[in-house]
Amino acid sequence: MASLWKDERTPHFVACITGIVGSRRVRWKRTTGTGDRKLARRMMDELEEAAQGRRTVAQVKAFLAEIGDLNTQRIATRSFDEVLRLTTGSGLASRTTRDFLAGWLLRTKGEVAPATQDRYEQTVKLFLASLEGLADQDISDVREEHVARFRDEQAQRVSASTANLFLKIVRIVFVAAESSGLVNRSPAKGVKLLKVSKESRRRAFTLPELGKLLAAADDEWRSLILFGFYTGARLGDLAALRWQQVDTVEGAVTYTSRKTGRTTIVPMAKPLREHIATLAAGDDPNQPVHPRAHAILKRDGRAGILSGQFGRLLAQAGLVPPRSRAAARQRKGGSAQREGSTVSFHALRHTAISLLKSAGVSDAVAQDIAGHESAEISRLYTHIEQGAKRDAVERLP
To answer: Up-side HSE of residue 47: CA atoms within 13 Å toward CB?
Structure first.
């Protein structure tokens, strides 16, 4: 329990308070900077609240601003700053949300893939715009309702899945702010993800759909599709693939995921070996397997343009409705919600993993071929066909 103490040699009261450092309770003495017992008692209570993590930086500053005597205010500020540094690791130095996000983006730049960094930058830009004037105030002023409003604003503009992705990134931001002691509790922690309808979830291709897709594709896209289906690699990884990674002697394709940094070795299926035999490899092993896609990836640093091209190929094959330019322009600058496609190049990974498991391949082998880090992620990519399920139940006695 807090108490006041006064030494005859000083005119100022000293507050004896209990603070919490990690899981330990610690007793401290801090000067209040005043001989006014009533003010000193108020300061003692506020110091203990701050020492036990029940006051934000903004609340402490608001209290200090009420102290009329500038000398008392200066001494009290030093006491509060010391207490906050001992308990949270960060003192009263304020950080606006805009400044903190700028520093956070700078720190993450070398830690994530270029495409992820682009998504971080996009999210930060949208979040700051949603906060408006609050973006230039202390980050501790951001509340749960502000984050929820941002989520709902994005849900009006993009798919629920994309809005959820934005929210997850904002959560990462405030976990970092919480670790830095700038907020006592992340305001994004209590904001729930939006429910995603089953109709908008990613699915696998059927074999007839793959046939239509291959029939509509030119030579390079046909090759990318075959590599995607038989290796489970992502589009960006296949665009970066070079001939030195294609070992026709050992019969394996080796690539390092741009997303996870994991190196995966996939044995070549017979159809893929036969396809590779038809390609012009050239004499330089450093040459890309898919030159056009590689040039786009090298120029942009990401596979966004290639994903757009694949979307048009899907429409050409009759697997998705064609997207008009007028609708695209309206979505780009307006608030209309984007209708997400349930199939994309990434669906080839779903297809390959699902067919492997339907054929009786173990979860561990399918997970390793796809380069998934966990069985939980592998299960998300598994879509067992009705025929395989029917065959399974027919085996019941």
So the answer is: 32
CA distance linking residue 107 with residue 110, whole number of Å: 7
Cβ atoms within 10 Å, residue 349: 24
Can you name the residues that pair with 6 across neighbouring β-strands? 13
Instruction: Pick the closest to residue 183 from 278, 67, 58 (CA basis).
Output: 58
pLDDT of residue 334: 40
- Quick: pLDDT tens for 20-56: 887 788 888 888 889 999 999 999 999 998 888 888 8
Integer Cα distance of 165 and 170 in angstroms: 9
* Long-range pairs for 8-12: beta carbons < 8 A, 24 or more residues apart: 11/35, 12/40, 12/75
Distance, CA of 249 to chain centre: 39
Q: Which residue has the tokens 């030093």?
A: 78
- Give the per-residue pLDDT at 86: 82
Residue 54: count other Cβ atoms within 10 Å of its Cβ. 12
Residue 387: per-residue pLDDT: 56
What is the rounded distance in angstroms from the CA atom of residue 365 to the CA atom of residue 353?
10
Residue ranges of the chain whose pLDDT lies below 50: 199, 326-339, 372-374, 376-384, 388-390, 392-393, 395-397
Sign of CA dihedral 69, 70, 73, 74: negative
- Cα gap 237→392, rounded to integer Å: 35
The C-alpha atoms of residue 55 and residue 266 are separated, in whole angstroms, by: 55
- Quote the pLDDT of residue 219: 94
Q: What does the alpha-carbon distance between residue 171 and residue 165 come to, in Å, rounded to a whole number? A: 10
CA dist., res. 211 & res. 220, Å (int): 16
Residues contacting 290, CB < 8 A, separation 6+: 220, 223, 224, 238, 239, 241
Q: Could you report the per-residue pLDDT of 372-391, keeping only the tens digit for each? A: 444 544 444 444 455 544 45
pLDDT at 192 (0 to 100): 93
